[in-house]
Design a protein that fits this description.
Two copies of one chain form a homodimer. The first copy, chain A, has 191 residues and is mainly alpha-helical. Chain A has two domains: 55 residues, Arc Repressor Mutant, subunit A; 124 residues, Tetracycline Repressor, domain 2. The first copy, chain A, starts with 10 loop residues before the first helix and ends with a helix. Chain A binds a DNA duplex (30 and 30 nucleotides) through helix 3.
DNA sequence: CGTCTATGTAAACAGTTGCTGACTTACGCA
DNA sequence: TGCGTAAGTCAGCAACTGTTTACATAGACG
């Protein structure tokens, strides 16, 4: 007997489904705790297809990071102000796309994947620093960049503390409740 | 042939050695990536002794968290000021005891261990909030506690970003270089 | 319709992991 | 000195994990 909703064979769709399931698992449970069988089951797909489409578990992880990199690379539609950056950061922390944040903290031990991760973090930090006037060769640029990286640290830390849950009031705080203190933090560090 | 430095049999010493090795490994590599054989080798001890002294890998992890809890519970010798808290936080982030910070972000999936971890985080947050006048039943206490948890998030995030390395200038920043921005952060959020 | 290939499946393999049970050995004590 | 027990060793089991290999089949195309 076939399942009533047997998907037609579609390599692209299968690949996408695997990527989606992997991002969730890797973000939530980390690289080591996630098994390829978990991912395949979530995607409703046979395990062997991971090797076929991504070479290896490491390759799949790398693809996850790359996809995060793409999404984060989208250019801004509006001029970034402190308020907008704060709002955007808080959305990353609280939104369903907090997967992206968590993935940036995960490591597989693979050198290539870790290189990608570092590059994304660097870009993220530079983008954040730029609202305070940072440019690739501004004098005293390291001071601003350091502060931007501290802001990033806070965002990543908040995301992780929220994800493991149970630390109130942070874990249940809404977007609205977080914007105010985060904005205060940005004002202090990036002005 | 015996090794030239055969330690005399000493259960307490062996237990301590295992705990020390486990804290380093769990903090640096996470729970899942660490094998009991790794820990035993680091401690220069037979694997089976982990089961004997800590019941299981989970038991050992739990003991690691508990030991962190003990160390963090030591009462202050001086009245906590913003400056002292900043200095203390930065030392936790940069010092060799950054193990403690990282462990608070690690999870084994075990319910008991996770309960311990949560309790430590909560105590840490309350201690931080108290320098801003927070008490268990102060009016508007949640607002202060939330801000303290954001500070904690920043410290934890910084520790983790530094540990995976490669995000400059944060990764190579000295204690001195970090105190200034962290103090600024505290002033804004906890005053 | 027949065939050929991309897509998907199932089973198994080799390595790893946490844990255990039977064994040996050092050390305190009578 | 001899002995009992705590401390430590050793080999192996059973389950799990990433990956591969051989096989099945849907669907496009002549």
């Amino acid at each position: 007997m076939m399942t009533s909703t047997a998907r037609p064979r579609d390599a692209a769709q299968t690949r996408t489904e695997l990527l989606r399931a992997a991002r969730v698992r890797f973000a939530r449970d980390g690289y080591r705790s996630t098994t390829v069988r978990d991912i395949a089951a979530d995607a409703g797909v046979n395990v062997a297809l991971i090797s076929r489409y991504f070479d290896s578990k490491d390759g799949l992880f790398e693809a996850c990071l790359a996809s995060v990199g793409e999404e984060l690379k989208r250019p801004e539609t509006e001029a970034p102000t402190l308020e907008r950056v704060a709002r955007s950061l808080v959305r990353q922390v609280t939104g369903f796309s907090s997967d992206q944040m968590l993935l940036l903290l995960r490591t597989s031990g693979d050198e290539r994947a870790d290189g990608i991760r570092r590059r994304i973090l660097r870009t993220f930090a530079e983008k954040t620093a730029s609202v305070a006037g940072w440019t690739p060769d501004s004098p005293d640029g390291d001071r601003l960049l350091l502060r931007a990286e501290i802001v990033l640290s806070a965002a990543l830390g908040m995301t992780q503390l929220r994800s493991t849950g149970g630390l109130e009031p942070l874990s249940s705080a809404t977007e609205e409740e977080l914007v105010e203190p985060v904005l205060a933090l940005l004002r202090e560090l990036l002005r």
